[in-house]
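Sanity check

After download, print the first record. It should look like this:
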Amino acid sequence: MPARVVYEDPVNFVRLEPDPYVLPEWPPSAHSHPAHLGEDLLERILTGLQVQERRIVIQKKLLGLAPREPAFRDEELKLLVPKLAEALAQAKWNERVTFYLSRPETSIKREITSGGLYLQGSLLHFVLANRQIMYGIPAYGMIYDKRYPMRPTGPKGFNLYFDDGAAVVEQRPSWFDILIGLEKDELIIDLNRVQEPPALVRATPATAALHPDGRP
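Expected C-alpha cells:
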C-alpha cells in the first residue's frame, strides 16, 4: 500500500504510511486510528518535546550535561500541529503519520527534521528520527531522507524527552526484541497523564475496535 499525502509543499510534507509493525493476524498491534486529537493537545505535546545532545564521558566531565532544547521551532509547530491533527483523523488502523521538514541551504545540502507518530489507546508513540540535521544530497544513488522520514540519516546525536515526565511511559524491551532488531526508538506519552491542558483525545467508535478491519 503506497503512502498517502495529507500535506505537501516544495520542502515539507505530512503523510500516512503503512506501519510494518502492525500485523493483520495480531489485532493488538493495530493502531487506534482514525483518532481526533484537539490541536490544543497536540500543540501541548509538541511544545513539550525536548532534545538533549548526547555527550561522551569526557565531554560530560569537562562540560557537564548538555542543556535541553525545544525539539521544534515556532514556525515548525505552526505547520505541524494542524496537519498532524488532520492526518491522525484520516489514518487507518495500519498506518502511521510521518512528517518531514526541510530548509534548503545550497543546491546539494538541506537541513532536515523528520519523524512520525501513532496512537494506541491513550498512548501516543512519537519518533524524532532527525532534528536539524544537515543532509547532503548524494551525487548518485538513493535519496533516503524523503523516502524514509522515520529513519535517521546518520548516527543519532540526541535523546528525546517530554517536559511532563510523569506522562512518559517507561519502555523495557526484552533482550529478544533487541537481538532481532525490534527495539523501537520511541517516546511514549500517556495522554491521560498530561497535566496541562487536560487530555482532549476523543476516539471515533472505530478506535475502540480490537479487529484490524474495525469490527468490535
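If your output differs, re-run the checksum step. Summary of this record's structure: The mean pLDDT is 83.
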